[in-house]
Amino acid sequence: MELFEQHKQLYERLREAKSTLDPxxxxxxxxxxxxxxxxxxxALRSNPNRYSDRRYSNKYLQKEIxxxxxxxxxxxxxxxxxxxxxxxxxxxxxxxxxGKRYMDELKEEEILSPRKVGMWMDCEGRRWRLxxxxxxxxxxxx
Length: 142
Hints:
Methane Monooxygenase Hydroxylase, Chain G, domain 1; about 15% strand; alpha+beta; 4 helices
């Protein structure tokens, strides 16, 4: 009987640990799904003949637009995921996925993600945008 009680206690602890980890895993799964969508979209965009088919060109365009809209949520999902993981790690310990700490992967990807960089300057009563590539001036009124 004693072994059965130990097993029952262990089972309850594992159920409790799973219930605390479920919201974090849900956010991680949502993020991983968006990352796979990004790879699928890149593969779709790399096909130069995707619009040449008369029958399915509109379908491919709609699919591409839908995937782009989904990917626009990725930064928000990343932020939610980082907040959930950091609060979980503060209480229970780190989350390891594929042998690496998942929070480190998130931070590494955030550092490597491309960002639009530009500076604005007021000159001659107009607002100018200085682009990073060549620091050329752009203005909406020429």
